[in-house]
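Hello again, I could really use a second opinion on something today. My current little project is about how a certain protein chain folds up. You're getting the sequence in one-letter code plus the fold written as C-alpha cells. Here's the protein in full, and shout if anything looks odd to you:
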Amino acid sequence: MTVAVLGSGPVGQTAALLLAQRGVPVILVDEHERRQPVGSKAICHQRDTLDVWASLGAGCLAGEGLTWTTARTFHRDRELFAVRLPDAGSALPPFVNLSQSRVEQVLDELIARQPLIDVRRGHRITGLTQPGCVEIACVTRDGPRLIEADYAVACTGAHGDVVRRAVGERLDGVSFDDLFLICDIRADLPGWAAERRFYFDPPWNPGRQVLIHPCPGSQFRIDWQVPDGYDLAAEETGGALGRRIRAIVGDRPYEVVWRSVYRFHTRLVRRMRAGRVLLAGDCAHLVAPFGARGLNSGVADAENAAWKLASVLRGEAGDALLDSYHAERHAAAVENAEVTTATMEFLVPQDDRQRRHRAEVLARAADDPAAHAQVDSGRLAEPFWYTDSPLTTPDPSRPFPGRPPRGTLPPPGPGILLPDVTVPAGRLRGLARQGFLLLTTPGVALPAGLRAVEIPVGGALGARPGEVWLVRPDAYVAAVLSEPSTAEVLGALGRASGCR
C-alpha cells in the first residue's frame, strides 16, 4: 500500500515524512533534478508548524530560525501600536523566520534517512488517471515513466495545472493588480532583529506599504508595494533600487542577496479530495502572504492528509474518512482567503468606500487604542479550528466563541488544537501523535483496551471532574465528554474515525 506525494517543496516533504513515520511507503515525485536554494521565499513559520517538524526530528529549525515576538505597525512616520505574540505556554517560539531553502535542506536530510521514502527526482508529471489506483505519467531524461500508487497527495504548487486538470479542478479566484517587490538584504540594523515592522504610507514609499522581516545572519526581507507595470531591471540600472533601500537602512553598508517581483492572488479549488487524490498547499489554495498563511496552512494540510491516509491504509478507518480532509482543510482555506482578502482590501483599497475607511481608521489609530484592531496589516497565521467538522462531537457546555481577537487563542475544547502542555506521562501532543488518545480526569473508568492518560482537573485544559477528552492523531480535540458511558466514548471515537 503506497502513497505518491507529488512535489517536494516543504508541504510535500512534510507529507512524505509524516506518512513514512506512520509506516506508509511513499514515492516522492519531483520534476527538478536538484534543488536551487535561491532566495528566502516562504520565511515565516508559526509555532504549530515548527511543532509538526519537531515531531519528525527537525526540531533544529526552531533553534536556527530567528525568533520574533513583536509586530510593530506604523503610519507614515509614527508608530501606531505593537502587538506581543502569545507564548501559549509552549517551549516553541510563536514564530521564527528562516529561509525556505534551509527548511527544505533539513527535511531532505530526514527524507534521505527514511527507508520508506523512495525519491524520484527529474520526473515531470504529464498526466494522471485513477483506474482503481493512481497512475502518474512522467517524463524523465531516460524517457517516459509510469508510477502507480494507492493514493496521491498533490503538493505541486501554484503551477500544478497538469494535476489539477487531470482531477477536474482549477484555482478559481482573483489576482491583485498591484505588485510587490521583495528584496533580501544583509545589513546591520540594531534593534530590528526581533521585530516585524509594517509601514502604511511611509515617506519613502508614499501611498503604498512596506513590510520588513528580520532573518538569521543579519538578513532582512523587505517587501515594497509597487504599482502595476513596475520595472525592476530599470530601477536597478538607474540606481532607484539602491535609493529605495537606503531610505530604510540609511547610510550603512548593505548587500542585496536576492530580489524578485510578485503579484498576489486569492484562489481556491472547489474540492481538495478528487477520488484517490488529495490536493494540498498551493496546489489547492493561494492567498496573499500578509499573515504568513500560505506555507503554514500547507503543513496543516499535510498533517491532516497523512494521519487519515495512514488510518485508511492500515484498515483502521474506511475510505469515507478521506472526505473529512476536504471538509476540514477546505474550510481552513476559505477562512484564510477571507482573512487575507480583508487584509488586501485594507492594504490596496478597491473603491472610494474602502479608501475612506482605511484613511479614517489609520487617522483614529494614532490616538485611539480602540481603533488598533481595525488596522489590518495581516492577521498572523494560527491553527484552524475544526468545531464544525463531521469528526467533532460538540459539547454544549463548551460552545465555540468564534474567531478570537487577533493575537489570542480560543479556550480548549472540541475542534481546538490541544495546547502544548506536559503531564507526568509526557508531552500531550507527542502522545496524541501516536494514535487516538483519551485524557481522563482522576477516578474516571474507561473500557478496556483504550489508550488513556490521566490529566489533572483544571490546568491548561480547564478539565472538569468526571471528564474524558478524546484527542485525534493530529493533536486536535475531537470530543469532551462528561461522565460518559462506554457507548458514548465509543461513539465519539467512531465519529472521529469517520465511521459515523
About this structure: The chain has a mean pLDDT of 93.
